[in-house]
Amino acid sequence: MHDINFIIIENERLNFENSVVKVKQFITRRLNYFNAKSINFTKSTLLIEKIKMLSNKADYIAVIDIMNPIVDIELLKYAKETLEKTKEKVIVVEGAVPGTQFEYLLGPSVDSIRDELLLYYFSQEKYNNQFNLYKYKRLKMFLILNKLIEDMPELSIDALMNKLCKMEIFERLAAFGEDINIKYYDVCPHCGGNLISLPMRMSQAFCGYIPNSRPLYHKCIKCNLVVLSPYIENEKGYLIYDKWDKQDFVISHNNPYNSKSTRCNLEIIVDKLPEKVRCIDLGGGMGNYSKYLKMSFPDWEITHSDFSIKQNQELEDMGIQTKALNFLQDEIGRNEYDLITAWEVIEHVPYEKIEFMLDNIYSALYGGGYFVFSTPNFDSPLCKMNDFYAICPPFHYLCFGEKWLLDFFHSKPQWKIISYKACADFLDDSDMWCDYMSRTAPSFQLRATADVLKLLLTKEENKKLLLNNNIGTEIIVVLQKQ
After folding, report:
1. What is the arrangement of strands in the sheet containing 474-481, beginning at the earlier edge strand?
2. Contact 290, 449 (CB under 8 A)
3. 233-250 exposure pattern, b = at least 16 Cβ within 10 A, e = fewer
4. 200-218 pLDDT tens trace
5. What residue ranges in 111-245 does DSSP mark as E strands?
6. In this predicted model, what pLDDT tens digit does every residue of 329-384 receive, in sequence order?
7. How far apart are alpha carbons 442 and 124 in whole angstroms?
8. Residue 54 contacts by C-beta under 8 Å, 6 or more apart in sequence?
């Protein structure tokens, strides 16, 4: 790489916890190890100016996004050879493991970005990982790995993947980088059936450093429950809901709680509730659902709950009560609430605590009160298609199917199933999910499929067609206390 000048585009997201210093040190050490001619950090607004300054008759210019720090040197060599053979001026790449690719490689004497040659690469098809830092969860994993693997800046992608497969590294990844005990399931914790591993075929959205050769999710061949194994022991589970996890919620613009959302349609029960409802939302994150309820039903007494790190003053200013609550240890209440909701929460609960959670909710409801929850639905093809069932290890301990849930609650006489219906975070924000798939899916065929799907889902009638046929990424279940 002695004839390549590197331009690294900076990103203000790395100001969080001053991560930029460590990321710059990593990139500098990596590129220097592979004999970069020069390394230049710059703002995106100054990119063209920097390219013109570095352009000359002898050297190449590689433009790197700082959020893609594990630069694939073999990919750069391949791209450079391609430029030499084709006499093209600029190359862009598709199909590298996200976080390892360059933005552009410019040949000698080129001082602008135009007429790019698209180069297919196949490392993502081989590994199916996600190394970029655009999620703070991944940033945490990257920083921890950089501590655990002393020579990480010097490793090829193949060598790094071999390190990630080592048991001591893999188990730290499976615990979101925390040095805490993890456990394994030998058989299904629900029915004792045999478990089969479910390899992931789409890129890992959040914690993307898990090696694909070590599947985390396993399906029971008898009852079809999907379990995470290895998993964090329950007593320490709260530790992973930390500042890195919270920051992803802080910057997120995705808010599925609005008047058009299936999640917010309570018409099946709202007329059966008292005039002044007492409601608590469990695991409510940053409180978007509680905000929606307060704006829609201002006379209701709304309580937002989550771990203390996700409490915020804005909710209290709106007249929403807040409660720091670990409902797997602490009592929710005694005959206090008419309505309890839990959106995308039950999958965060280890199987051994499901009964405790449900008993806790039951005790907190008035007689005839309602519990409404949503969770990924493994029985749905849309959930399987995108590896949505495995979207967020190690935070998601379980993935239920519709049939499993209905069988489970039919066996519980203290609960009456009022309704169940499909909903889909994927469909609520289909452009974002399809764009994500088209950038990160392992094969060019799957990336092309994502582009087709994005076009189809621009039509609301196609989204409704899926939901009307019970095809969603999640299921909403409404239960009544008996």
Report:
1. 321-324, 301-306, 278-281, 337-343, 365-376, 474-481, 415-423
2. no
3. ebeebeebbbebbbbbee
4. 888 776 788 999 889 999 9
5. 116-120, 182-183, 195-197, 217-220, 226-228, 231-232
6. 999 999 999 999 999 999 999 999 999 999 999 999 999 999 999 999 999 999 99
7. 5
8. 5, 7, 38, 40, 61
SS3 375: strand
Question: Model's pTM, two decimal places?
Answer: 0.94
How far apart (Å, rounded) are the C-alpha atoms in residues 395 and 120? 34
The pLDDT confidence band at residue 288, using thresholds 50, 70 and 90, is: very high
Q: Which tokens is 326 given?
A: 């670990």
**Phi/psi at 143 (nearest 5 deg)?**
-65, -40
**Can you tell me the distance from the alpha carbon of 278 to that of 370, in angstroms, rounded to the nearest whole number?**
11
Q: Which helix (DSSP H) or strand (DSSP E) does residue 176 occupy?
A: none
CA distances from 41 to 107, 209, 230, 244 (A): 20, 25, 40, 25
State the DSSP code for 100.
S
The b-or-e profile of 161-193 (16+ CB within 10 A means b, else e) is: bebbeeeebbbbbbbbbbebebeeeeebbbeeb
Which tens digits make up the pLDDT trace of 98-152?
999 999 999 999 989 988 999 999 999 999 999 999 999 999 999 999 999 999 9
Residue type, 354: I
Q: Are 180 and 171 in contact (CB under 8 A)?
A: no
Cβ count near 78 (within 10 Å): 16
Give the CA count within 13 Å in the CB-facing half-sphere of 43: 3
Distance, CA of 153 to CA of 70 (rounded, Å): 7
Structure tokens at 64: 């790197």
Mean pLDDT of 42-68: 95
